[in-house]
Design goal:
There is one protein chain. 0% of the residues lie in helices and 44% in strands. It is elongated. By secondary structure, the protein is an all-beta fold.
């Protein structure tokens, strides 16, 4: 059953495709814009094969795949986009045999979730000012395809993971509460290339102890109140933009944290007695310095902030780095 091609569907309407194991339902969804689109089973397993022809996108506000619905990707032709301006919930089964899903999410304050362990995509992008919470894992099914957060978009991944084969590009903001940080067994578990682009923001916001992945960042926000311990094989993490210490701590251990931004005020604009850098090993905080002004090194022990401040009355002729760590008893 399809919809007459000239029919008008309000973006506030709800369209339900409903069937059962003995009453299969099919739909030609090409080029249509729905309000809320739902696929439901009244009894048994409903097999759904929505037909979306190449070059004809499907646009919906909310997409809901209910329990006992076997939703097949086989009817979605190559390079066909599904645009979702709202939530996506999957409580049925997603059958990826013979097809893939390319989706663009544009909603604000929306969720991708359901009862499935993960939702498979060939490509998934968050565009414009989209803001989404991941309530399930995302699986990238195709090598060299991607998970992208655009410059003004935000994705709160929580403790979920992006797995599979595709690449990951972060131009906007990613929030992670995963205990293992970003890579491997953490938020970014895909085997494809991973790029945190200039101008992006990574926020570590777990309320429990969390690993801080040693890599290059643009801007980093620390929140959630817990200790974030630098970890990895590189031995250092570098930040080219800002380090914003809202709540919680960065523990260096024997690792180095490098702030490459030479701005004396804006490089580390926020820190406090409940959010600073714990130097409990041989690791140091290295701050780029070269401009006139006061450079604060917000370091301390596991129990107290012991900040240092160095001021320069004029710009330095040879910009360099200030290194600092607090040594207990010194």
């Amino acid at each position: 059953i399809g919809i007459y091609s000239k029919a008008t569907i309000s973006p506030f309407s709800t369209w339900i495709y409903r069937g059962s194991s003995t009453l299969a339902v099919s739909t030609l969804a090409s080029g249509r814009t729905y309000g809320h689109l739902r696929f439901e089973s009244t009894s048994g397993i409903l097999s759904m094969v929505p037909i979306i022809l190449s070059g004809n996108s499907l646009t919906v506000n909310d997409l809901y795949i209910g329990p006992n619905v076997d939703f097949s990707y086989s009817g979605i032709q190559t390079n066909t986009m599904v645009n979702i301006a709202g939530n996506m919930y999957v409580f049925g089964t997603l059958n990826t045999s013979g097809g893939t899903l390319i989706a663009s999410f544009t909603g604000a304050g929306k969720t991708i979730g359901g009862s499935v362990a993960s939702i498979p995509f060939e490509t998934i992008s968050f565009t414009g000012t989209a803001s989404y919470t991941l309530a399930t894992n995302i699986n990238l099914t195709t090598t060299n395809r991607y998970f992208t957060i655009s410059p003004f978009a935000t994705v709160d991944a929580g403790t979920q993971q992006i797995t599979g084969l595709g690449r990951i590009d972060v131009f906007g903001k990613l929030i992670t509460a995963h205990a293992q940080g970003l890579y491997s067994s953490g938020t970014f578990a895909s085997t494809g290339a991973i790029t945190v682009q200039p101008g992006s923001v990574i926020e570590y916001n777990s309320a429990l102890p969390q690993l801080f992945t040693d890599r290059d960042y643009s801007t980093v926000i620390i929140s959630g109140g817990s200790i974030k311990t630098i970890s990895g094989v590189n031995g250092f993490a570098s930040i080219s933009g800002q380090l914003i210490l809202n709540s919680g701590y960065i523990r260096l251990g024997n690792n180095t944290l490098i702030i490459d931004n030479p701005d004396p005020v804006n490089a580390i604009p926020v820190f406090s007695t409940t959010s600073y850098i714990i130097t409990d090993g041989t690791g140091t905080l290295n701050r780029s310095a070269g401009l006139a002004g006061s450079y604060v090194l917000p370091v301390g022990s596991a129990t107290s902030l012991e900040e240092a401040c160095i001021s320069f009355p004029v710009d330095l002729s040879s910009p360099s780095y200030l290194r600092g760590r607090f040594i207990t008893g010194a």
